[in-house]
Amino acid sequence: MAQKAAIIGGGVIGGGWAARFLLNGWDVAVFDPDPQAKRKIGEVLDNARASLPGLYDMPMPDEGTLSFHDTMAGAVDGAAWIQESVPERLDIKHTVYRELQDACDADAVIASSTSGFKPSELQENATRPQQIVVCHPFNPVYLLPLIEVVGTDVNKDMIGGVEETLRGVGMFPLMVKKEIDAHIADRFLEAVWREALWLIKDGIATTEEIDEAIRMGFGLRWAQMGLFETYRIAGGEAGMRHFIEQFGPCLSWPWTKLMDVPELTEELIDQIADQSDAQSGQYSIRDLERHRDANLVGMMRTLKARDWGAGAILNTHDKTMNQTRVVPETLGDIVDLGKPVKTVDRAVPIDWTDYNGHMNEARYLQAFGDATDRLMGIIGCDAEYIATGGSYFTAETHIRHLDEVHAGARIHVETQVILGAGKKMHLFHVMYEGTRILASGEHMLIHVDLETRRASDPAPQVAEKLKRLAAAHAGLPRPEGAGAAVGVR
Amino acid sequence: MAQKAAIIGGGVIGGGWAARFLLNGWDVAVFDPDPQAKRKIGEVLDNARASLPGLYDMPMPDEGTLSFHDTMAGAVDGAAWIQESVPERLDIKHTVYRELQDACDADAVIASSTSGFKPSELQENATRPQQIVVCHPFNPVYLLPLIEVVGTDVNKDMIGGVEETLRGVGMFPLMVKKEIDAHIADRFLEAVWREALWLIKDGIATTEEIDEAIRMGFGLRWAQMGLFETYRIAGGEAGMRHFIEQFGPCLSWPWTKLMDVPELTEELIDQIADQSDAQSGQYSIRDLERHRDANLVGMMRTLKARDWGAGAILNTHDKTMNQTRVVPETLGDIVDLGKPVKTVDRAVPIDWTDYNGHMNEARYLQAFGDATDRLMGIIGCDAEYIATGGSYFTAETHIRHLDEVHAGARIHVETQVILGAGKKMHLFHVMYEGTRILASGEHMLIHVDLETRRASDPAPQVAEKLKRLAAAHAGLPRPEGAGAAVGVR
User: Fold this and answer.
1) Looking at the structure, do residues B109 and B164 belong to the same domain, yes or no?
2) B155-200 per-position pLDDT tens digit
3) Is residue A489 part of a domain?
4) Which residues cross the membrane (chains A, B) (predicted)?
5) Do residues B350 and B232 both lie within one domain?
6) A190 and A67: one domain?
7) Which of helix, strand or coil describes residue A159?
């Protein structure tokens, strides 16, 4: 049975949490007195459904059930996880916790999205302080992996479970060792924000110039390495120590104005809001969200292909999700050898599609390439085997593009072995959305010695498995379109 | 004739400048007393050659000539641009400028890479202060587009030319309106750096935890939107003003320790260096550079496909580089109609390759898809035509993978029209590295009404151009491999 999360406060952050849990198969119960909450969360969910599933190379679990409740008690009934994202006022949070703890399970997690308060402050006067912990997310919560988890001594028994749950929904829990105001990331955001306010107030730069100063330069560095790994390189061959010795003295230069906080006068607020309109006013907030999500998906998938940073988190979640074996990993996982094998089952990522949301031509081949890789794995030609010096290379490909498919659609590929003998492996892939055929891919692969880059026989254990699968498929009808040439009917 | 840039100081930053100019077709003359300078710059160049050309969908200009000089006078002889990247001490910079101005052209640009000094400070006591301007880059200079350009009133006549030159080598010059210490970006970097030192000193977080707090969260946001556009969204539908009103009060919270500067004791330096070793010590600095570059290339190419941020800068540079028409844009650009048309000419990007540096299967089809797009443009089926509701869709593809190719290699595609009549366009692409054939791609395309998504006749002006090209290609021999089916010999 699906686990249940209660979302207390359904704004931008609460809505993101709802999407994160729901798309990972949890039932989600929302409490938010805002009469617009249902519509707003619906819009967050639309964004999440268009972007999150395509980050993975596995299908996500079936979505849980979403419900809205008039009372906190109704929302938290049976919930294992309660996410509080109410306004950042300690008195409000304390009142909410009292009401939650009157109704919720005693061993449920009450996680606060607070970006500023320490857990010890949140726990003050609570009925069961040990239930309450900081789990601070980053917008958009359904895409960004970071969660700052901060507890106190009284949380010792539950903090391991918190970490596990967050990993289970594909996040990266950063387990903060000591509580401080604003945890870690927001201390940086605060420092940058203050400096930015001064730059605008003093007429040095506009909001747009500040954004360009970030995203054309160090923002790109920080998306993949952060501060210290970046600086480790900046020291050149001499590394981190050299860098500090070179850069350290600059710290006493009179460079920043951070000793002082600029007053947020109406005039300064106007200045910022007007500059922001001039910079981004051509997009609606919803447009900007979609641009942001598509940018993030593409960049995170880049990092995923390199198994780096946020991309490594996605790969880990792929492995977790395939524990239910939606696609087989070895010959033994296949239930019925006498049928085509399901070799791909996934959502179409945004970065596979054009400006109209249609999947690009080359990505059909990418999906078929993934299908081939999976079939190779099934017959034992996996990473471990390849490391011993043999692999299959594609010699020839024939694709028929039969129908279109959109970003976010769930596609799967079924693969039939037409020939598997000697150095050759002849495969026929068919791509579907549901029962609708999208494309076929026919491929001739040759086993290659990776040292000589020439054709060679596969190792006996691989040859034997391929032979078994080919024999089982020999009874299948020859697929429609097999053996066709371009333009020949 | 190629323009000449002199590089004064060839460390990490100077070497990056050398690569940026050299790969954009400038001759580069280096002065650096370090006996290792030649080797170090060679290594930066290796990285740049592997990463920069693949960011573009055009070939870059032929590399200029690189030379090393024992004197500043020798390096600056005939140079239009002189980039100073010597240590950050004002007395050293003043001495260098005196020597440079004794030898260089009076109208050459002397650009300083300083991250801290104001141009008015650099210009003090100079022979010709109007030559000296701040052009502050970001590491790696050969990949990141941002340059902070800061001048004073005396630079008025030359600052436009500075901007133009920097755009000419593919950069994004941010023209800073008022000089302040540390310009714009480094004020943020300073603020974050100080806060990070406190977090380490107080035992709140390690270098690794700080890096994760950045790259798993806001770093990904900042790579594509910066600070204000990100926050504009964070306010939800209410936008920027609402965000400031919500977030503003938090600024007076006692969240940061930035009022004070931590002393860089030996103990703190040890702590940072040791943590950094624990975090990244499994990679050499060179390894890290290659990971960083591959990550940046992939993320920047993602943004390029979306014409966003740093990616939009790449697209602009593509257009500039194709002014020399290495591939034709219209039928009229084709010199000899009776030959296959060059439809792609580019370097293989890192993100098109696997861990071994070989181009991935699906990227062959991507290059052939680009070749098809280009041929469509040549016959007038361009963005403007497509906006009127017609386009060609690929129905069928046959690829023969004949040889391997690596990241950074320059490839080109030649395209022959086999049939171009009625709704059909039958193309045969051949991909080469130099004269070596890598692959062939045979494609049947059908003209489609984008409204009904059904086959339709192309507009007369497109049909006529295609017919002319097809007629001119009719005399060419039928390409080897055309009409083949998978596995049929």
Assistant:
1) yes
2) 999 999 999 999 999 999 999 999 998 899 998 998 888 888 888 8
3) no
4) none
5) no
6) no
7) helix
Chain A residue with the nearest C-alpha to that of B401: A395
Q: Is B454 within 8 Å of chain A by CB?
A: no
A203 is annotated as contributing to ligand binding: no
Q: How many CB atoms lie within 10 A of CB A216?
A: 25
State whether ipTM is beyond 0.95: no
Say whether residue A404 is in contact with chain B using an 8 A CB cutoff: yes
- Residue A170 makes CB contacts below 8 A (sequence gap 6+) with A20, A24, A145, A313, A314, A317
Q: Which amino acid is at B356?
A: N
Residues of chain B short of pLDDT 50, as ranges, are 252, 254-258
User: Measuring CA to CA, how many Å separate A131 from each of A82, A105, A160?
Assistant: 10, 10, 13
Give 10-residue mean pLDDT values along chain A (489 residues).
93 95 96 94 91 86 95 97 95 97 97 95 97 96 95 97 94 94 90 85 90 93 89 73 67 49 71 80 80 88 90 86 77 92 92 87 95 96 95 96 91 96 96 97 96 96 97 95 83
Domain end call among B150, B166, B183: B183
Say yes or no: B432 and B340 in one domain.
yes
Q: Is residue A486 part of a domain?
A: no
Q: Which of residues 45-74 of A touch B (CB under 8 A)?
A: none
Same domain, B258 and B404: no
Asked whether the whole model's pTM tops 0.80, one would answer yes
Ligand-binding site membership of A96 (annotated): no
Which domain range does residue B264 map to?
186-282
Sort out which chain B residues have CB atoms less than 8 A from A218's CB and list them: 138, 185, 188-189, 222
User: Is residue B281 annotated as involved in ligand binding?
Assistant: no
Is A9 annotated as a binding-site member? yes
* Residues whose CB falls within 8 Å of the CB of residue A412, separated by 6 or more in sequence, listed in order: A342, A344, A345, A346, A431, A432
Query: Is B259 part of a structural domain of the chain?
Result: yes
Question: Is residue A302 a part of any domain in this protein?
Answer: no
8 Å CB contact between B56 and B346: yes
Question: Domain total for chain A?
Answer: 3
Q: State the CB neighbour count (10 A cutoff) for residue B452.
A: 9
